[in-house]
Specification:
Helix content: 25-40%
Radius of gyration: 31 Å
Shape: globular
CATH topology of the largest domain: pyruvate-formate lyase- activating enzyme
Number of helices: 22
Distance between the termini: 44 Å
Number of domains: 3
CATH class of the largest domain: Alpha Beta
Structural class: alpha/beta
Largest sheet: 9 strands, antiparallel
Length: 763
């Protein structure tokens, strides 16, 4: 069971984030521009379309004038989707209905005064009375410097959380809508208002003005693309198109939209591709050419839907998201809390955004669990034959299965199996082009990730509780929403603990191939006998040092007068970067008595030594942590010596390091010299002996300290190696006092100079 408080604490770390918060707010109208109201059924159908087809996580309902009763039933209907509903009003109606709306579960209120901002004063007071958060959409032309201070005080007293300054609102009536033309005076007003809102701790957003004329705070509040608070482009386009139509036409349009998006099937071309590819190959190539030509001109259904969001995938930066959850007081995560700082932009997070931030942290945790499982355990199954696609021509290949097709749309494989949670399924797609690849599960759940390059490894991990994470090349990624499909649920239904799984691909460009399908199932994992926790945890981060790593691990294996069951080795590496996996597998087969826990990390962390070491130190089980470089060998009496002195110290360091020459290094790597047998000889022949380098600070080639120290300090997380071990050594001295020096050095294998910024060749 996850602890929500601990989940929130993790969000303060920018590294915990995968992607930022994207557009999630939908928009529906209770009436058209002429004031003709929709029936409850139409509003419910529109809400269903916004949630299930356009993947909106929260909904604004436009209701200018008096609030219709249909809004009450819409709020109730939205509970079926767990989607909050907000009211968007111009403040011209009666406020008596607000009490019933608040009692029914209205999320918040967006006030959009057409002219005089003081016209919404009754609504401000009513919202404060019923404890409803308030958002404002204001045309700055209706404000002036003289009335701004009193207005700002009213907004602050009423509990206004966010103010958006806009240039035009297409939903206000054409007769009274005031368009603020982009002039220098309008820009200066934005500057004045932005400064005032910042000082009051109210979030400010600016749309549709000249950014070059805005001051620093106004620029930071400027929105050049739809973000989490602006409406989904697809939802906006639909609302604008229907707002000028009659209720009868709106009803028809909604029925057609739902039918086209959720019922109409794709046309299969399996039989056509087989006929053309086997018997009429020249005709197949001609048709494939025209299919590509048609796609280049009209695009596919998926890419056409993506064009609606052209320029909008920009997301909150990781650092910005981290600032959003800085707790200023114990009530920091209460409903509608404003996050502000004297130097930072005030931000408003509603309930949906806070939940989405928690989900981001959970996805990262699930991805970490999946990578750990895949690195420690062999797949329970590997499916390389007798599987294909239902709607594409299949070409079995050596070590792969290729799909061929002419038409766009989704293609799915035959059922690969019925998997019981928890499970992981993984495959590599490449040797061709597709828009997206992924998996389809029981319950009509399709999880696809976009293909950016021509080769990606796609994995899906589902835990026992039904929470899942889709990964591309080891990194979590949000599933793609294909037009016509329902949005993927955040958690798989508990009614289907056993799921059938198929591979899915979207908009294949003639051909794509899949590697054998690998499946991990908990039921097939060999149960291990419980073991006592080790005393020492050795942590090594290896990037392109696999050959030297083998010699280092051999030295750990051949420790004298020491029980190896009291030692664990955590080797962090980047899969595919070098042959570290082969080295670890060889050690496992030849020396099973040495406990090695492989720790794989994505390519993005190739040079993130600090982040990787911190992650490994959190997983270490020993009382002592030993940070060891992948090219540093320890003597055969290393751990017996540590046993004799560790009781009286918290930080231990070798006397220094002996630099092994190139010839002896080559002989060690080729197996001609075994360091554990010829240690003294190698020590005498070392090129140099460094006893007091780096101003005497115990740097990172072999730092030994009690794990409890890790609760106080962290390894510096830089995107390079230089200087981080020096800073960490100083921090260890500050936390533990001066280190105890052993009476012998370790040995450093030669590799032609320092590799501060990560090795570019293999050593």
């Amino acid at each position: 069971m996850r602890d929500p408080e601990n989940e929130i604490e993790k969000l303060s770390d920018p590294a915990a984030f995968i992607d930022g918060l994207t557009v999630s707010r939908g928009l529906i109208t209770a009436h058209n521009r002429r004031g003709q109201y929709l029936r409850d059924t139409e509003m419910h159908r529109w809400l269903s379309c916004a949630v299930q087809v356009m993947d909106c996580a929260k909904i604004d309902v436009i209701a200018f004038g008096n609030v219709p009763r249909s809004l009450l039933t819409t709020i109730r209907y939205a509970r079926e989707f767990s989607v909050p509903v907000s009211l968007r009003t111009d403040g011209s109606g009666e406020v008596e209905a607000l009490a019933q709306l608040a009692g029914e579960g209205l999320e918040d209120v967006l006030l959009v005064p057409e002219n005089d901002p003081r016209s919404i004063t009754p609504w401000l007071e009513a919202c404060r009375k019923h404890k409803l958060p308030i958002r404002l959409l204001i045309n700055p032309i209706s404000l002036n410097a003289e009335t701004l201070p009193s207005l700002l005080q009213d907004w602050k007293t009423a509990g206004v959380c966010s103010v958006t300054l806009y240039n035009d609102d297409p939903f206000l009536s054409q007769k009274s809508s005031t368009v603020c033309t982009v002039t220098r005076s309008g820009d200066l007003l934005c500057n004045l208002i932005a400064d005032a809102l910042w000082n009051a701790g109210i979030e400010c957003r600016i749309r549709g003005f000249n950014r070059e004329e805005l001051n620093e705070r106004a620029c930071l509040s400027f929105i050049s693309h739809p973000d989490r608070e602006i409406y989904s482009p697809a939802a906006t386009q639909m609302a604008q198109g229907l707002f000028d139509r009659s209720p009868a036409l709106i009803r028809t349009a909604l029925l057609i939209k739902l039918k086209v998006s959720t019922i109409a099937p794709d046309i299969t071309d399996k039989w056509l591709t087989r006929l053309l590819f086997v018997y009429l190959i020249p005709v197949f190539h001609v048709l494939a050419f025209f299919a590509r030509l048609t796609r280049s001109r009209r695009a596919t259904r998926h890419t056409r839907s993506e064009l609606l969001q052209a320029g909008t995938p920009l997301q909150e930066s990781r650092e910005d998201l981290a600032r959003l959850l800085k707790e200023k007081d114990p009530q920091a995560l209460q409903h509608g809390h404003i996050l502000s700082d004297s130097k930072e932009r005030p931000r408003y997070l509603d309930r949906v955004d806070r939940e989405r931030l928690q989900q981001l942290a959970m996805k990262e945790d699930l991805a970490r669990e999946a990578r750990d499982w895949m690195s420690r355990v062999e797949p329970a199954q590997e499916i390389s034959e007798n599987w294909g696609a239902r709607d594409a021509f299949v070409i079995p290949q050596y070590g792969a299965t290729a799909w061929m097709t002419n038409l766009s749309g989704q293609r799915m494989s035959h059922i690969l199996g019925f998997l019981e949670r928890p499970f992981i399924i993984s495959t590599t797609a490449g040797s061709g082009i597709a828009e997206a690849v992924g998996f389809h599960l029981a319950g009509n759940t399709t999880l696809l990730c976009p293909m950016i390059e021509s080769r990606h490894t796609v994995s899906l991990y589902v835990n026992e509780e039904g929470y899942y994470v889709l990964m591309r090349d080891g990194m979590p990624i949000e599933p793609l929403l294909y037009p016509g499909d329902y949005a993927a649920p955040g958690r798989l239904s508990s009614a289907h603990p056993v799921s059938f799984v198929t591979v899915a691909a979207l908009d294949i460009e003639k051909r794509i191939a899949f590697s054998p399908i690998r499946i991990w199932e908990m039921a097939c994992v060999e149960t291990e006998q419980p073991q006592s926790d080790p005393k020492y945890s050795v942590i090594i981060f290896c990037t392109r040092f696999a050959r030297r790593l083998s010699a280092v691990l051999q030295c750990l294996r051949h420790q004298q007068n020491f029980d190896l069951s009291r030692l664990e080795v955590l080797v962090a590496f980047i899969p595919g970067l070098d042959s570290t996996e082969d080295v670890l597998e060889s050690l496992k087969q030849a020396h099973p008595e040495l406990t090695i826990h492989p720790q794989s990390f994505p390519k993005q962390h190739t040079r993130s030594k600090g982040y990787v070491l911190n992650q490994c130190m959190e997983r270490a089980r020993g009382d002592w942590i030993i940070l060891l470089d992948a090219d540093t060998m320890v003597p055969p009496n290393m751990f017996s010596s540590l046993d004799s002195v560790e009781k009286d110290h918290s930080f231990i360091f070798p006397a220094g390091r002996a630099m092994v020459g190139p010839q002896d290094t080559a002989a060690i790597l080729l197996g001609d010299i075994r360091p554990w047998n010829d240690w003294n000889m190698l020590l005498q022949r070392a090129d140099t002996l460094r006893l007091n380098e780096s101003l005497g600070v115990p740097i990172g080639y072999c730092q030994c300290f009690r794990k409890e120290i890790f609760e106080k300090i962290r390894y510096p997380e830089y995107e390079h190696f230089q200087g981080a071990d020096f800073e960490f050594g100083q921090a260890l001295r500050k936390a533990c006092g001066h280190e105890y020096r052993l009476d012998f050095p370790v040995m450093h294998l030669d590799h032609k100079g320092s590799q501060w910024f990560g090795a570019e060749r293999h050593f």
